[in-house]
Structures are given as C-alpha cells and as structure tokens.
Amino acid sequence: MAQRTLLPGMDRFNRVLCCRETFLTQIIREALSLGRFDPSVTASLGADIDRAAKEAKKTRLMDELWREAALPRFPSFEDTFEPADFDSVDAETFTLETGRARAISTEVLLVMVVVDGVYSLTSLEGYERLVGSEVFQAVLGGRRTPARSTVAKYLGLVSAESHALLHRTLLRMVRAEGLDTFEELTVDSTAIAANTAWPTESALIVGFLNRIHRLLERQAKYTQVAYSSKLVERWLKELARLHRSINLLPSRPGSVAKRRKLYGKLLTVADKTRKKLEHLFATRWEEITSCCIRPTFRLRVDRMLEQIEADFAEAAKAAEAARRRVLQDECVAASGKTFSLADPDAYMILKGQRDPVVGYKPQLGRSGNGFISCLELLRGNPADSERLAPMLAAHIEATGTCPAAVSTDDGYSSAANLDALCTAGVEVISFSGAKGRKVLGDELYELDASILLRSERSAVESLIFTFKHKFGMRRFCRRGLAGARKDLSAAVLAYNLWRTAFVRKAKGREPDDPPIRAVA
Predict the structure, then answer these.
(1) Backbone phi, then psi, for 475, in 5-degree steps?
(2) Residue 153: count of CB within 10 angstroms of its CB
(3) Are strands 184-189 and 405-408 parallel, antiparallel or unpaired?
(4) How many CB atoms lie within 10 A of CB 228?
(5) pLDDT band for position 111 (50/70/90)?
(6) At a CB cut-off of 8 Å and minimum separation 6, what does 433 contact?
(7) In the 3-class helix/strand/coil scheme, how is 181-197 assigned residue by residue?
(8) pLDDT at 208 over 90
(9) What is the pTM of this model?
C-alpha cells in the first residue's frame, strides 16, 4: 500500500486532502471547509476553551485564598473562615496570561466534535477508532495524540451556543452553494435509547438507596463529618438478596404470588432503610454544609448533597410505584414511575405498535435535498401534534427561509397545526392518514402537490435509518438531557457534512428537480 508523504509546511486542510478517500476523511474535510467558510465557528470554540480556562483559574485562585486564610484547627477554636462563595466571583473578569500551549487547537476541537457525531468519542471504542485513523493523525500534524480523558474534557466544554452556531453556519454554507433551497420540510420523530439498563422497580429501589449510602460515606473524606451505620449496611444486604430472588423467579404457576410476597418484604425493608438514611442525613446536614473546607471540595460535596436529595425522592417514587403496581394490581402512569438510576431524564417512549424504548424522542426536520434543517430534544414523551409549530419556527430560524411545503405523518394532524402553518405562510400542507384527510378536507388532500408530498414523505424514514445506523444514533452515549442533546447535535452536524459532500457530487451529474412551487 502506498505511503502518503506529508510536507511539514502543509496546513491541516491540505494534509487531509492527501489522505485516502474514506467516509471519515470526507466528513473531516467538510468540517475544515466549514471553518474556512465562516471563521466565527472556530472563534466560538476558542471562546469556549477560554471560558473553561477562566473557570479553572478561578478554582485555583479560590483554593489559594482558602489556604492563605484558613487557620489551624484546635478543639477549643471554631472555624473563622467561611466557605468561599463561587457565585460571588465572575470568571469572565479574569484575564488569561501566556502559558503552556493548549493541548487542542480550535480546528482540532472542531474535528473532534464532528467525529464525535460518528463514533461517540466518550466511549472507549470510539476513542480507539479516532486515534487509529490516518486522517486524524494528519489533522494533528505530528503533535501528541490527546488522551481519552483530554478528549472527553474538551468535548464537554463545547457550549450549546457553539453547537447551534455550527448547525446554522453549515445550513448557510449549503444554501450559498445552491445545494438546497430549504423550501420543503418533512417532520418526523423517532425513539433513541438512553445509556441505561432496562428498569425494574426492585433494582431501582436498591440502587438509589445504595447510592445514598455510598455518597454519605464519600462526603466524609472531604468534610470529616463521620458517617457509618451497621444497621443500614445489614438492610442493604437484605435488599440485595431480595432483589436477586425476585430476578431469579421462574415463569410458572405460583410465581405471581411468590413475587408479590418478595416485593412486600423488599418494600418493608426499603422503607426502613430510607427513613434511617433520611434521619442520618438530617442530623449531619448542618455540620456538612457549614464546615470550612477547600472551595473545590465544597463544590464536590454540594453536588453530592444535591444527588442525595434527588435520590431520596426517586427511591420513594419507585417504591410507591412498585407498591401500587405489584401489591395492589393498579396501573401506574409513566409520570408516576422512575425509569433509570444512571440517567434521570430518561423516559419510557411508546411509538405506535413498536417496542417501548427507555430513552428520548427527538424531532427531526428533513429538507428537500435530505439535510436535517431543524431538531429538538425534550424530556419525556411529548405528543407529535404539539411539536410541529416549534419545529417550523426552528427551521425558519436556522435557514432563514419559510418553507413553501410542509409534510408530516398522521400524528401531527390537528386544526391548530394547520392554522399555525397557514399563518406562517406555508403554501402546501400535507398530513398523511385518515385524520390528516379530515383536518385538510378532501379538496386540499387531493391536490397534486399534496399527493406528491405524501409520496415523498417516506424519504424522512430513510434519513432516520441512515442517521441511526450510519451515525450510531440507535443509543445515546452521554447521560442526562444535556448530554443527550450534545450527542444528537454532534450526530446531526456529522450527518449534514456527509450530506453536503453527497449532494454536491450528485448535483454535478443529475438535472435539478423542479421546485415545489412549480408543482403547486
């Protein structure tokens, strides 16, 4: 196999041009072109890096102030130094002096954000594929390959504003090249699994109580507020045994009654454990919150306390749902359940006759040439009929164009959505299905343009399939709503960059289709 020679004076873009033509090379080349099209993209990423550096400097300075002001502790002395108040200091007021060169430049960070949308770099497998790729080594240009923790750190500091700017700039570049007019919009939703296990009430109850116990033990390392309870430890072992017995119950006659009996015992022990933990936590609360410790330690302890309070509420919620569902044979609504120990924002997503998914339900908007022009990710399982108007507004904001035609499936059909689209200036509206026909009326439903939109609506299903299987969006890697939004945004960016190269290449060999206005 021929070895490519990279001249030392070449910039990143030309080094990438020298790499073999692969799927990843294509996307990275488009990403660097995006940075050249509008330098504000890399400037925004640079501002994110500066902001993180200022926050780190603020942390160091606050720790230094604490070390200078803290007095030795003697049994007869009280602390005279109050814990530093981080909120009273604005990191933006700091200036960054010249120091060591940063591990990652803004262009390299841009490339990593894009590759994160393909390989999920927060996972070990994705990181290994990144550092083993020829094109990424060309981007680094002989510099040291960043560690996995460094990659995760820099990806975490990219703000939601930078993600939105990347999305808008790419669509602006697409329009400037004439690759799409954005006069067509097809909206659909899909279910994407969260990075969590399938929920069972017994596992959730035991998991929340175990985590509370561990966090109370961990805070003692920072605050020196002693915590231990042999009684809680014994009860937690008993809960683990009952949970294991519930899981191992076979499906045979008599299992339902035995399962109900085991759940009754588990809930009794869980209630005792939770009340004991609440008492232990309450008696130590004032001492934990008022002790004088290093500011960085205070931030960690405060996060632990927030997690403990949230876990108490979730443990009680899971126990109540199990009591009603298993012991009282009641049907419990999704809003009355908790679904994940690892991801607090995950929800049970039900779509039609498909299998339920514990995760999220993103909304995606497809343009006429297959770009994702708008996206949305909310917590829970919002009805499609409530999200069409916000998706139209997001499309207009991102592209600067009000679409002439909007197409959806029957789930978005409603008189309110029809009025909203007409008010916005949409000329052709297509709701598929019997409900859509009723909302539109026979005359509008049978228009040639409406028939054409319905016949082409399946293209959005192809987009979702490609998005899930080519860009790994069958399951989120990050946890929590903010993390899932970053995963989704990075994948959309990578998809649109790939689509840009694909449409540009196809446009050179195929005649343009007539615009939708001509059909209408």
Answers:
(1) -150, 135
(2) 14
(3) parallel
(4) 11
(5) very high
(6) 409, 410, 413
(7) CCCEEEEEECCEECCCC
(8) yes
(9) 0.88
Structure tokens at 434: 């019997």
Query: Torsion-angle region of residue 249: left (phi > 0), alpha (psi -120 to 50) or beta?
Result: beta
Q: Which two tokens stand for residue 183?
A: 């006069």
Q: Which two tokens stand for residue 378?
A: 């909310």
Task: Write out pLDDT tens, residues 265-307.
Answer: 999 999 999 999 999 999 999 999 988 888 889 889 999 999 9
Residue 71 CB burial class (10 angstroms; 0-12, 13-18, ≥19) = exposed
- Dist CA 166 CA 51 (whole Å): 18
pLDDT in the model for residue 79:
44
Give the dihedral of Cα atoms 107, 182, 21, 459; nearest 10 deg: 130
* Inter-CA distances, 229 with 233, 267, 281, Å: 6, 20, 11
- Tokens for 306, please give them: 């927030």
**Closest of 239, 322, 227, 300 to residue 274, by C-alpha:** 239
Listed in sequence order, the residues at least 6 apart from 200 whose beta carbon sits closer than 8 Å to its beta carbon are 246, 247
Those residues with Cβ within 8 angstroms of residue 330's Cβ, 6 or more apart along the chain or in another chain: 324
Of 75-89, 90-104, 129-143, 293-307, the poorest mean pLDDT is in: 75-89
Tell me: pLDDT of 62 over 90.
Answer: no
Helix axis angle for 124-131 and 148-157, nearest 10°, is 100
Q: Which amino acid is at 516?
A: I
- Asked if 374 and 398 touch (Cβ cutoff 8 Å), the reply is yes
Tokens of 56: 């780190």
420: tokens are: 């909203």
Position 17 pLDDT exceeds 70: yes
% of the chain beyond a pLDDT of 70: 89
**What does the alpha-carbon distance between residue 172 and residue 99 come to, in Å, rounded to a whole number?**
36
Mean pLDDT value of segment 142-149: 86
**Is it the case that residue 85 has pLDDT exceeding 70?**
no
3-state secondary structure of 430: strand
Task: For tokens 């009754």, name the residue.
Answer: 264
Task: Of 318, 374, 371, give the one whose Cα is nearest residue 344.
Answer: 318
If you write DSSP's letter for every residue of 3-65 in order, what string do you get?
Answer: PPP--TT--HHHHHHTS---HHHHHHHHHHHHHHH-THHHHHHHHHHHHHHHHHHHHHHHHHH
- Note the Cα 150 to chain centre separation in Å: 19
Please name the residues in contact with 218: beta carbons below 8 A apart, sequence gap of 6 or more.
304
Q: Following DSSP, what letter does each residue of 193-254 receive, concatenated?
A: E-SSPPP-HHHHHHHHHHHHHHHHHHHHHHH------HHHHHHHHHHHHHHHHHHT--SSTT
d(CA 325, CA 401): 50
Percent helix, strand, coil in the chain, to 5, is: 60, 5, 30
What is the CB neighbour count within 10 angstroms for residue 23?
12
Token couple for 129:
């594929």
User: Tokens 């510099």 label which residue?
Assistant: 143
